[in-house]
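Hi R.,

Here are the chain sequences for the assembly we discussed:
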Amino acid sequence: DGGITQSPKYLFRKEGQNVTLSCEQNLNHDAMYWYRQDPGQGLRLIYYSQIVNDFQKGDIAEGYSVSREKKESFPLTVTSAQKNPTAFYLCASSMVQGGQETQYFGPGTRLLVL
Amino acid sequence: RKEVEQDPGPFNVPEGATVAFNCTYSNSASQSFFWYRQDCRKEPKLLMSVYSSGNEDGRFTAQLNRASQYISLLIRDSKLSDSATYLCAVNYFTGNQFYFGTGTSLTVIP
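And here is the predicted structure of the full complex:
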C-alpha cells in the first residue's frame, strides 16, 4: 500500500521530556511538512522540507526540531522547550502533477502532556 | 491579516439541501487552490483541486474568482455523510508552503 504513515497514534509526554514523532512516506514525494492543529486554530506549519538534508522553519518552529536524512522520512522532535505541546500533529507530503503541487496528509499523532 | 480566511460556521442544513462555502485569500499571486474534508479527529483528506475554469465532481462544484480573490465549494443534494469540516488551502507557487483556512463546519440534519 502506498501512503503516509505516522506513529504512534497517541503519545504521552512527561514534563521536561523530548519525544519524537515518526513520519514515513512511500509515495516518492520530494516535499514533506509538519503541522500542528489545535481546536479552532486550523493548521499551523512547524517545519517543511523540499529535499533531503534541507528544511525550513514554518510559523511555529520554536520548541521543535526535524531532520531529513532520507527522502521517505521526516521525524519531528518535540523538545522540552515547547511549553504547550498538547495538540494533534499532522505530517504531509506533496507532489507536483500537471504543474500543480498537491499535498496529502498522514493519519496524525495526538500528543498529550502528563 | 490572515493568508486564508473562512467562515467557521457552523452550517446546519437539512438533507437534500444545497450549501456553499467561500474562502478568501490575501495574496493575488496564489497559484493553486484546494478543498479538503476533515472528519472529527481525523486527518484532512483532499476533496478536490480548484481550477481556473471551475470544476465539478459529482455533487461538488468548486470555483475560483481571481478578481475577488476567493474560492467556493458548492455541495448539492447534501447527504448525512457530508457532515465534516471543510478546509480550503492555497499555495503561492511550487516549492512554497501551503496556507490553510481554519475550516467551515457542516452538519447535515436528517
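Chain B touches chain A through 22 residues (CB under 8 Å). Chain B is about 0% helix and 55% strand.

Let me know if anything looks off.

Best,
T.
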